[in-house]
User: Fold this.
Amino acid sequence: MDFVFLYETFVTLISAIPTTLQLAATSVAMGTVLALGLALCRLSGIAPLDWFARAYIFVFRGTPLLVQIFLIYYGLSQFRGVRRSMFWFILRDPYWCAIIALMLCTAAYSAEIIRGGLLSVPHGQVEAGRACGMSRFLVFRRIVMPLAIRQSLPAYSNEIISMVKATSLASIITIMEVTGVAAKLISETYRAIEVFIVAGAIYLAINFVLARIVVLIEYRLSPHLRQAPSLQPVAAGEMK
Amino acid sequence: MTQPSFLDLIGSGPDGWGPALAAGAMMTILIALAGYAIGMVFGALGAWAKIAGGPIARGVAGTYTTVLRGIPDLLVIYLFYFGGSTVISAFGHLFGASGFISFPGFLAGALAVGVTSGAQQTEVFRGAYKAVHTGELEAAIACGMSPFLRFRRIIAPLTLRYALPGMGNVWQIVLKESALVSITGVVELLRQSQIGAGSTGRPFDFYFIAAMIYLAISTLSGALLQFSEKRFTRGVRRG
Assistant:
């Protein structure tokens, strides 16, 4: 094992970590908003909205992410209307194309997770909220949403981790994130195994930290599942 | 010169890419099937190690699933494609060949897809084995079945029955992952679309039809899986 080479690879790859994290964070944040909209469409009971959300989820879950990225990055430039539109400065930039594709894709997967969370809220809770005189929006904001978030967190951490892995596809449209830099190093040095070990360790570390953070949030959000902190026994004579 | 219409592009006429795209789709299915088969082997071995293995086997299987589920598939494909070439070239030098010998892209792709899906398959099989009632195993022992007979008649059929939904999910993931194999130059569906897009200047049309073909394959195989699931759980009482 050539430790000097491993160390140099590590230093080179570290500089690419911010790009990976930015891609993942931006697309997950934007994707969550879109997913919430889709989940609400699915649950709205309005047929056209429901069918739109169903079709969207079906298409984006049934096609490979790489095809979606190519469709947005290479495909849209086929149309003169797109090239002349005001959005062209976004759509010609591989970074934003990658974010848009990742966002659209994660929204389809997250929508089902969020829908499951929303459905898991017991009806009695909603009725209790209504009985207290809360408006529908207030019930959603104070009762349904917090319970749904807590319920869907474990599944959501899987989705976040798979998004971190999916950012590697951005390297195919020239973005130099961790996998992109690793591929460049491999083609320069022909030492695939060493570079793979370092890059793989970086991804594992990122995903491990993210998974721990989600577990921590879940722990904070579910105090009702833990034993209440026991009170100090007080002798009768000391009572005041 | 007039631009060929979308239907001309996907047809089999003089401007048509239909046959080429169909061949690409067949290649995609082949890669996915090969990768899936390799993944089944890895999954079965991994599950066996996790269930019945000693501390070392369990440790190896645990590391395997943790690592392969935590790193991007693309990185694994790079490893097999470039790493395989390095190993083969080194062997070539031993036998007097000179220069760089490239590893076949199909093999690298199928292996990479197989190893990554094997990690998911391990968990699917392990979960399915856990769902088998201990009473059934005890009954088999009470009937005097040997361990092999027990595995063949009781454990394997029941585990496969419980594993079917999870195996279907893994198949869908493998099918979509096979698109990444296009970077090794194997002319599967996505690579064929790239070639078509490059030579006609119609990227949207080609990637759109590629997406539709992927959607069709995954929908059809999904329906097939659902049918087989229904068939193999005929004997199970519902509700």
